[in-house]
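Ops channel
N.P.: pipeline sanity check, posting one input/output pair.
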């Protein structure tokens, strides 16, 4: 394949969170590798900030709304086909199922489908469609847990065609954006001397902040706060739960905090209580901040928080309470050792350098695989 033909299309359904960041992550993987990347958003109007934050060489907006691409209308497929005529892409990267089958239907090139959630192939129709394009389609999950979920749904596929590609962060750049502890606490209106457990995410049953509040309520009250950043349909019920448990004055609901990744140093430790998190980017942001991280022992989160003693059983109030007690009791040098170990694990598996090594070694990119891009 000539250098001139090494062009890659990245297709996302929308630029709603977290997919601008996802697009930028994948643009970084291709930067400096001799490829030109065009990122295309199926839905949404042109937005200059999205262009700046997406990375890559070109960002295009097809301008459909969600209704227009429901079931994927012919107009969207036609636009993709016209784009192929002008750009001559050699490879497509498609995020989530609808962009995957749009690329498969509209284009006659290898497609790498990236899956960010569980259950994408539980429907028979999706399994059949994936099978129809199996010779030029490879699938990547953002964690081994997501990969294994896909493999279970597509048991006839060779395991080598369904692999893992972890999310990643640019560690140095992120750490440079993160505010010092005292400054971050002032910005979030948190007291300087309290021990603060932090949680960031939608207030939604999937995130299971109710278990976190119940576990926090069992801790000795002296000097401890729980700060929860995010909004969602459980706003009122979670606040009512904190009041019912007598900890309303010690649970701070911070609301939606723009650019929350800048403020993780306001926390002493971070707790992810989610139900089967496919990956958990917030875990990386917390580790980068140099704070201790606790997580549920399920989904992709167990791959990010490697040490089992800092994971707790999903929905188990007592297990989580014991983890919180243990991390709060840590003194130097044990706390420094924990933070250093978690940061080393991040650098080894979830840094840009690690992600590049993982991606460019993927079987689907190399000759010998039926679906390869001629790398």
């Amino acid at each position: 394949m000539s250098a001139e033909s090494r062009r890659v299309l990245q297709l996302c359904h929308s630029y709603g969170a977290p997919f601008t960041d996802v697009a930028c992550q994948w643009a970084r993987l291709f930067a400096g590798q001799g490829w030109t990347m065009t990122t295309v958003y199926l839905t949404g109007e042109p937005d200059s900030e999205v262009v700046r934050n997406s990375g890559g060489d070109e960002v295009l907006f097809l301008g459909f709304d969600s209704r227009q691409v429901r079931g994927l209308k012919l107009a969207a497929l036609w636009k993709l086909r016209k784009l192929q005529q002008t750009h001559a892409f050699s490879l497509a990267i498609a995020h989530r199922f609808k962009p995957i089958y749009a690329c498969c239907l509209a284009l006659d090139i290898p497609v790498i489908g990236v899956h960010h959630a569980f259950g994408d192939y539980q429907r028979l129709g999706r399994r059949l469609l994936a099978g129809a394009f199996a010779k030029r389609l490879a699938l990547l999950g953002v964690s081994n847990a997501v990969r294994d979920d896909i493999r279970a749904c597509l048991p006839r596929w060779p395991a080598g065609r369904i692999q893992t590609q972890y999310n990643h962060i640019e560690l140095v750049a992120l750490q440079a954006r993160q505010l010092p502890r005292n400054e971050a606490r002032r910005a979030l209106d948190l007291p300087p001397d309290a021990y603060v457990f932090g949680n960031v995410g939608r207030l939604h049953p999937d995130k299971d902040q109710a278990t976190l509040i119940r576990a926090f309520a069992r801790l000795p009250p002296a000097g401890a706060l729980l700060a929860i950043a995010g909004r969602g349909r459980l706003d009122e019920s979670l606040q009512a739960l904190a009041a019912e448990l007598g900890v309303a004055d010690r649970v701070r609901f911070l609301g939606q905090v723009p650019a929350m990744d800048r403020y993780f140093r306001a926390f002493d430790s971070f707790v992810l209580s989610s139900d089967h998190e496919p990956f958990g980017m917030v875990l990386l942001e917390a580790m980068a901040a140099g704070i201790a991280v606790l997580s549920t022992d399920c989904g992709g989160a167990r791959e990010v928080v490697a040490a089992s003693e800092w994971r707790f059983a999903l929905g188990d109030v007592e297990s989580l309470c014991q983890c919180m007690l243990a991390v709060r009791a840590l003194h130097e040098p044990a706390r420094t050792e924990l933070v250093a170990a978690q940061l080393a694990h991040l650098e080894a598996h979830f840094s840009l350098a690690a992600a590049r090594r993982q991606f460019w070694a993927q079987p689907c990119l190399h000759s010998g695989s039926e679906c390869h891009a001629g790398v």
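N.P.: looks fine end to end. The radius of gyration is 22 Å.
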